[in-house]
Amino acid sequence: MNHHATDAHTLVAAYALGALDDDERKDFDAHLRTCEACRQEAAEFEATTARLAAAVSQNPPAAAKTQVMAAIDGVRQLPPRLPAPSATPALGGFLRRRAVPWALAASVAAAVLGGVAVWQTQNGQELEQQARQARQQLDAVGSVLAAPDARTVHGKAANGALTTVVTSDQQDKAVFTAANLPAPGAGKTYQLWLDHDGTMRPAGLIDHDGTVILAGNPADAGAVGLTLEPTGGSPQPTTDPLLLMALPA
């Protein structure tokens, strides 16, 4: 790991996402034995990544297997993939840092798209649009989680949902993840809010377990809230908050 010791803390996200090479991972393992803050943050990133993958996963279409089997005979085998020439150490280190958001995107995209590649080829536009939207979401989420100033806070809503918020001042964004979120019920949805000095501003909707980028500017917000609102959301909260969690400082 060709980094000054003071830079080791910035590699937590890359470590949790498996984006370090063997030597870097070995050195960072040694760093973790002496740094409680990095151990806790690495565990939080690993848990959040697992929730992201579970939240956006989906089963392949029912017709996928039949179409895959029918297409096998007509699919030309690709030639073997040869390793690319090694980059210089400086460039390699730069690329590894740049690759961190893509490492997250790859880990989650495998859950989103893994079973539908051939079916997508057969059915074109609809799945291409879904894939494009998924990639955009993954890129946005990955850029926040992999930001060197990413900070994480965990909470539990009054209805039992487990929540995680990751913020980045550099990205000027915040990511909200919910797990074990009960169904909102007919005609209802969960709405997120950003608390700006006591003024609650809408920050997006979430209907089930999943991950969203909070709408609005989290930089000058003190907390994130969650309420149950009519379908489509409300301009102001109409119910008591199920969650009001201080954003990480």
Describe the structure.
The chain is of the alpha+beta class and 249 residues long. Helices cover 39% and strands 21% of the residues. It has 8 helices and 8 strands. The strands form 2 sheets. The protein has a 4-stranded antiparallel sheet, with helices on one face. A hairpin with a 5-residue loop joins strand 1 (151-156) and strand 2 (162-168). Helix 6 (100-113) runs antiparallel to helix 8. The protein starts with 11 loop residues before the first helix and ends with a strand. 28% of the residues are buried.
Layout of secondary structure:
Elements: H1 12-16, H2 22-32, H3 36-56, H4 64-71, H5 89-98, H6 100-113, H7 117-123, H8 125-145, E1 151-156, E2 162-168, E3 173-179, E4 188-196, E5 199-206, E6 210-213, E7 223-230, E8 243-246
Antiparallel strand pairs: 1-2, 2-3, 3-6, 4-5, 4-7, 7-8
List keywords for this structure.
single chain, 249 residues, alpha+beta, four-stranded antiparallel beta sheet
Short description:
With 249 residues, this protein is α+β, with helices and mostly antiparallel strands. It is 39% helix and 21% strand.
User: Main β-sheet: number of strands, strand sense, barrel status?
Assistant: 4 strands, antiparallel
Proportion of residues in extended strands: 15-25%
Number of strand segments: 8
Unreliably modeled segments: 1-6, 87-103, 109-119
H/E element sequence: HHHHHHHHEEEEEEEE
Instruction: Supply Rg.
Output: 21 Å
Based on Cα principal axes, name the global outline.
globular
Number of helices: 8
Please give the domain count: 2
Helix proportion range:
25-40%
Question: Whole-Å distance between the termini?
Answer: 29 Å
**Would you tell me the overall average pLDDT?**
74
Strand order of the largest sheet: 1-2-3-6
Structural class, judged by helices and strands? alpha+beta
